[in-house]
Each structure stands twice: as structure tokens, then as C-alpha cells.
Design brief:
Length: 272
């Protein structure tokens, strides 16, 4: 026998069986991401420690104080209610964007004349910040959830609509011809050919919409509502509870990261 066969296996190989390449790649990506987050936290801590005086108010915005306040808020449980309210508003806004944006995107992608007629108007409206509509939304719908839902739907409808239209234009014309040759009705062509074909583009639009929704949500919740993460941040500021404010900002970032990760996983699953 050769020496390589008789040689004992390496200690690491004996303890840890070889992972599949896909798992190794995922583990490497996760490790790199965690390292990047640790560097960010270290820079945050160093900035607070080096640039602020001991005992100053700015020390309340440090990562240690923020993490301690976040643990306390999670233990008390009230912040979970605010997070649930915010997530519900995001789902309502996203649902409204899908109900409006997908049919509009299908129509724009199918009829170029409609796209040419409405394109300038849609691009004009798309470039207006949703937050600039806040006073008008409050005057039209009053205070409460209604204006927040309207603003979130307005913010999210554009990526959904534009990506759906791009998906329709990217469809292989031979699929439509095949459906027609099989005497498929328009409804059957829509449900069995068009919608499955544009689903990947719609999911991409949903991921972009979720990012926009989460950014727009917090300032929307600072006006005329009594619950939500934006309201909680404003309340912490008014109470001068700066460590809680930092904790809420961390929670907003963590939830937004989780939502984006879920949307990315859905897109990868559809693509794979």
C-alpha cells in the first residue's frame, strides 16, 4: 500500500466531514458578513469612545448602551407591539402596491401605446418623494393608519409596476404563439404563460419595494399615529431616553435586514 493510504487522516478531517461546496460557500459568505458587522460595531464604539467626553449625553448613543437598552425593551415586550404594528403597515402597503402595480405593469408591458402615453406621467409621479405627500395625505384621510397606508402604497407601487412591465417585455414571444396555437383563451394565456413568466421580475420588484417601504415607514409613523417604531423613536426622543432611541434604531435596522434577507431568499428560490 502507498504511504498516503496508510497515513492517518488529519485531525480536522476526522472530526468535521467535508461539507458540500454549496454549504462551504454559504458558510464563507456568512463569516465574511459577520466579520463586516463586527468591524462596523468596532468603528462605532471607537468613534463614541474617542470623540465624546466621559459622562456626556453622546455616550448614550454607544453600542454597549444601545444593546443593553434593546435587551431591556425586548424583555418588557412593549417594543414588540410597536414592531408588530409597523410590520402590519408594511404588509398593507405592499399588498396595495401589488394589487395596483401588477395589473398596471402587465398592461404597460403588453401595450406599447399605453406605455408611451402614460410613461412621462408615471415617471413624474415616481420622482416625487412619498414623504412630500404627507400633509396632503393627512388632510385627505385624517390621522391614523389610513394616510400611512396610502403613502406606503404610493412608495411601493413603482418598483412593482416597472419590474412587472419589464418582465412582460422580456417574455419569449414563442410562448405566446404556442399558447395561441393550442387555442388557449386570453385568461388561460395570462394565468399559465404570462404570470409564471413574469414572476421572477415581480419578486425583484417586491424586494425593491420592501426596502423603500421600510425606509419610508419610520418618518410616516412620526405623524399622527400612536403606535409603531417611528412613533416609539419620537417618544424616546421627547423623553430624552437616548439609549432607548439607539436601541430602537438598532431594531429598525435588524428588522429591515431580516425582511430583505427573506425577500432575497424568495428571489433565489424562484431563480433556482
Amino acid at each position: 500500500m502507498s504511504a498516503s493510504v496508510l497515513a492517518p487522516p488529519a485531525a480536522g478531517a476526522a472530526r468535521w466531514p467535508s461539507l458540500p461546496p454549496r454549504w462551504r460557500a454559504a458558510t464563507a459568505r456568512a463569516g465574511a458578513g459577520i466579520a463586516g458587522l463586527l468591524v462596523l460595531v468596532l468603528l462605532w464604539w471607537a468613534g463614541i469612545a474617542l470623540l465624546t467626553a466621559p459622562g456626556s449625553i453622546a455616550r448614550a448613543f454607544g453600542p454597549v448602551e444601545g444593546a443593553a437598552a434593546l435587551a431591556r425593551l425586548l424583555a418588557e415586550g412593549e417594543v414588540l407591539i410597536h414592531a408588530g404594528v409597523s410590520l402590519r403597515r408594511v404588509l398593507v402597503g405592499l399588498g396595495a402596491a401589488l394589487l395596483i402595480g401588477v395589473p398596471l405593469g402587465l398592461a404597460l408591458g403588453a401595450w406599447r401605446g399605453l406605455e408611451r402615453a402614460t410613461g412621462p406621467a408615471f415617471q413624474f409621479l415616481r420622482m416625487i418623494s412619498p414623504l412630500s405627500w404627507m400633509p396632503i395625505a393627512v388632510m385627505a384621510f385624517g390621522v391614523g393608519d389610513a394616510p400611512v397606508h396610502v403613502l406606503l402604497g404610493f412608495a411601493a407601487v413603482w418598483p412593482v409596476m416597472l419590474n412587472t412591465a419589464a418582465g412582460v417585455r422580456a417574455l419569449d414571444p414563442r410562448w405566446i404563439m404556442l399558447a395561441r396555437s393550442l387555442a388557449a383563451s386570453r385568461r388561460e394565456t395570462l394565468w399559465r404563460v404570462v404570470l409564471p413568466g413574469v414572476l421572477g421580475h415581480v419578486l425583484t420588484g417586491v424586494r425593491l419595494a420592501i426596502g423603500i417601504l421600510w425606509v419610508v415607514l419610520v418618518p410616516c409613523e412620526m405623524l399622527g399615529v400612536s403606535a409603531g417604531l417611528g412613533y416609539a423613536i419620537l417618544d424616546a426622543r421627547d423623553r430624552l431616553a437616548y439609549a432607548e432611541l439607539t436601541a430602537l434604531v438598532l431594531l429598525v435596522g435588524a428588522l429591515g435586514f431580516a425582511l430583505d434577507a427573506a425577500a432575497r431568499a424568495l428571489c433565489r428560490r424562484r431563480g433556482g
